[in-house]
Structure formats: C-alpha cells, structure tokens
Specification:
With 466 residues, the chain is an alpha+beta fold. It contains 7 helices and 27 strands. Helix content is 20%, strand content 33%. α1 packs across α4, α3 packs antiparallel against α4 and α6 packs antiparallel against α7. The longest helix has 18 residues.
Length: 466
C-alpha cells in the first residue's frame, strides 16, 4: 500500500505540474510539496463523476493515507467500491472509517448495508445467490465466469442460478444476467414484462405477465423452444428439458424427447410438476400422479398412487407423500432407496441422488438407500423438525435449534455438533448451511469455490409469504 501511495502522489504531483495555470515559479514551488488530502480527494471526486472507479479508489485511498480522520473520504471510497461492484470492500471501508473517525454517519451506513435481510436464495453449480429485501443481491462461491458479480444490482425482485450464470428479475419486469454466456444464456437485456425467471444448466427461462414464455441459451435438445407457450403459471427446468404448468392444469414440455420425458400433452388437472433426471412427474388435484420419461427402473410406475399431497424426484426414483402420512416410492432400488412401505406418520420427504429421507410427526426420522457413508444412520435422532439431504449426507434440525448430520464427512460437511439457535438447514453436494435465529448464517464443508463464505451475512429471514 505504501508503494502504491508513493507512486500515486508522484503521479498527482506530475499532474499538477502539467496543468498549473500560474506562472512557472509558483508552479515549480507547488510541485515541490506533497499535495494535501483535499487535493487528492477532489481528484478522486472528479474520477468518480467520470466513471473512472479504479482511479477514484486509488485517489481516495491515497487521501486516507495522508489524513485518516476525514469521514467524507471513507464515504466516497465506499461509494466508489459499490459502483465498481465490490460490495464487501465497500462495507469494510465503512466499518474502518467509522472506527478511525468515530463518525456515526459511517457507522449507520455500514449497519444499514450489513443488516438488510435476505428474502430469497438460489443455488448454482458452485455458487450461492441471496436476494436482499432492498432489492440488492449478494453471491458467494465460484466466480470464474463472473457469475457472482452482482453487487451493483438494484431493484431486483427474484433471482435464479444456472450452472455458471446468475439471473435477476427487476421490479420493472426487465431481466439482468451475469456469468458464462457461451450459449447465450445471459442474453436477456431485451426481455420485458417478465414476472418469473428460472435457470438451469446452460439456459434461462422467463415467464411473462401475459402467460407466454421466453428462453435463451443452450437449445441443443430444443429446451428453449417455448415461444408458442401460453397461460403458464409455473415452470420447472430440468437439465435437458423444460416443463410448464398452465393455468388450466395442463402441462407443456420441450427439450430432449429421449425416453419420452416431454410427453405431457395429455395431462389434465395438474397442480404441481417436478423434473427428475430423465423423467417428469405431475401431481393432479385429485391426489393421483402422472409420470413420463425413462422407466428403465420403474421410476414412472405411479399410475396406482392415490391420496398424494407432495412429490419428490430423484435421479432415477420418484417419491410420493400420502395424506395419511405414509409414503410411496418407485424407481431404482438397488440400494434400497425405495424401501418406504413401512413408514408411518410422515410429514415431509426429501430425495437425495441415491437415498430417501422422511420426517415423522413425532420429530424422529427415517432414511433408506445408499448408506456407504452412513447418510441413512438417523434411527437415533429425536425432536427433528426439518430435514435436508445432500448427495452423500443427511442433516436434521432439532426443535431446540441444534443440528445433527450423518454421512460423508470428508470435507467436514457433517461438523455441525456445535451449532446452536438454528432455525433452518440446507444441504449441498458437499457442504451444509444453517440459518440462525438472529439472522446470521453458518456453513461447513467443501469451500474451494467459497460456497461457505457466509460469515458476513446478517438478518437473513425465511420468507413467510410463498
């Protein structure tokens, strides 16, 4: 920093020497003196007004080196960082400034910036996105393709995440996207009147106010051919196919036709849809279920199901929760993931890639399937109120706010024994996240892409209106 400061001062002195309008003697005398913090601050303000944010940041940092007791320098430096897209640096600047100057205004601005609650989240392949209540967005994780460069977004009302890209829906119905764009999945600048967005794999889908749908990105299997869709109320995006639920309870689907996963044209009275690895599931209003697609291992054998209130789809199996608290499951069962016929009093189900988890009304839990890493060893759990299933681990939230986890712990994704005051949990492939009662977040597990860097998140709340 000292080297940068010295070089910047030299540059400012040269600038002053080249632009002085006074006589040569006065100019020479001025350039022999180091410029004041005010001179460099004014230069930074000029750079800021011209949109030269990097130069402005250098100027304000140099001014702070000269006099670290000037609150307005920190204030402008934070603004420069925000406009440059570095929200974390802006927050650090405000906190440092408040500490160095005692400024209540800086402290208040830092508190406001730090405490805005998260109201929605989205998860990509290796990054996590949070939508704040004030319409700004935060993202952590893999940023190799710029998919986390969202700190300057404003007026956002919904977010979605694909494998390497992030999508934001703005209050005015326009859409913004960052990240990998090799297939055009971020080409959304011309979209208008959008009310919902979805992202999956390498493509993006937008639902318009008039019930039509737009899509951009990879269309290798025709998954973006939605231009003729009408009256859509919900959409689900699979890896290679997209499914739309219409207001009249019918369903449309586009994408790869392999295994017939898009053969939903005859469906009626559907209230929910889900896309599995190679199949599509629809829950009817009467509690029956329809399924199409790959049925190599019987994952679509649901025609006899009755009284279903919720469905979940794994990679190659389908799970249905019945109104009486029992569970049905069909599909790949080489590891026992469908052995749920004896379950009773179940109130929620979750499907991992190769295992199935059920939460009972009494707070105990059942799990079946691949148990190579002990991810199904939940028989001793008590007072569980919520469950989550990762690829090879299972997480349970107790009523007292503590958490238990079993399964693969190679990346410490099960190291949750010291967590307290937790109100919600989520499980990624190789990491675990917990939301605390005070709105902060804890995370453990694989963090090579920063997916556990949530220590600065605050006032995160579970939406009550869904």
């Amino acid at each position: 920093m000292r080297k940068v400061f010295t070089l910047f001062i030299a540059a400012v002195m040269l600038f002053c020497a080249c632009t002085a309008k006074d006589d040569l003697e006065e100019s020479t005398q001025e350039t022999m003196q180091a410029p004041s913090w005010q001179t460099i601050y004014d230069l930074g303000v000029r750079y800021l007004s011209e949109g030269n944010y990097e130069e402005a940041i250098l100027a304000f940092e140099a001014a702070i080196e000269i006099d670290p007791k000037q609150p307005k320098i920190y204030d402008r430096l934070a603004t420069a960082y925000e406009l440059a897209g570095d929200d974390e640096a802006a927050l650090r600047t405000l906190l440092d400034g408040a500490a160095a100057t005692g400024s209540r205004a800086l402290a208040a601005r830092a508190e406001e910036k730090h405490s805005v609650p998260i109201v929605a989240v989205a998860a990509g392949w290796s990054h996590t996105v949070g939508l704040r209540a004030n319409g700004t967005v935060v993202a952590v994780g893999d940023n190799e393709n710029g998919q986390c460069d969202v700190s300057n977004w404003t007026d956002i009302v919904a977010v979605a995440a694909g494998i390497h890209h992030t999508v934001g829906l703005k209050a005015d119905g326009t859409v913004i996207a960052v990240g990998e764009n090799e297939d055009g999945q971020c080409d959304v600048s011309g979209w208008r009147d959008i009310v919902a967005v979805a992202a999956e794999g390498f493509y993006t889908v937008g639902l318009k106010a008039d019930g039509t749908v737009v899509a951009v990105g990879s269309n290798y299997y025709g998954q973006c051919e939605v231009s003729d869709w009408r009256d859509i109320v919900a959409a689900s995006a699979g890896g290679y196919h997209a499914v739309g639920l219409k207001a009249d309870g019918t369903v449309v689907a586009v994408g790869t036709m392999q295994f017939g996963r898009c053969d939903v044209g005859g469906w009626r009275d559907i209230v929910a849809v889900a896309a599995g690895g190679s199949h599509t599931v629809g829950l009817r209003a009467d509690g029956t279920v329809a399924a199409v697609g790959s049925n190599v291992v019987g994952q679509c054998d649901v025609s006899g199901w009755r009284g279903i209130v919720a469905v979940a789809a794994g990679d190659a199996h389908t799970v249905g929760l019945k109104a009486d608290g029992t569970v049905a499951a069909v599909g790949d069962n080489w590891d026992g993931r469908c052995n749920v016929s004896g379950w009773r009093d179940i109130v929620a189900v979750a499907a991992g890639d190769h295992h199935t988890v059920g939460l009972k009304a009494d707070g105990t839990e059942a799990a079946v399937g691949d148990n190579e890493y002990g991810q199904c060893d939940v028989s001793g759990w008590r007072d569980i109120v919520a469950v989550a299933a990762g690829t090879y681990h299972t997480v349970g939230l107790r009523a007292d706010g503590t958490v238990v986890a079993v399964g693969n712990n190679y990346y410490a994704e099960c190291d949750v024994s010291d967590w307290t005051d937790i109100v919600a949990v989520a499980a990624g492939d190789l990491h675990t996240v917990g939301l605390k009662a005070d709105g902060t977040v804890v995370a453990v597990g694989w963090n090579d892409d920063g997916q556990c860097d949530v220590s600065e998140w605050a006032n995160i709340r579970i939406p009550t209106d869904r």
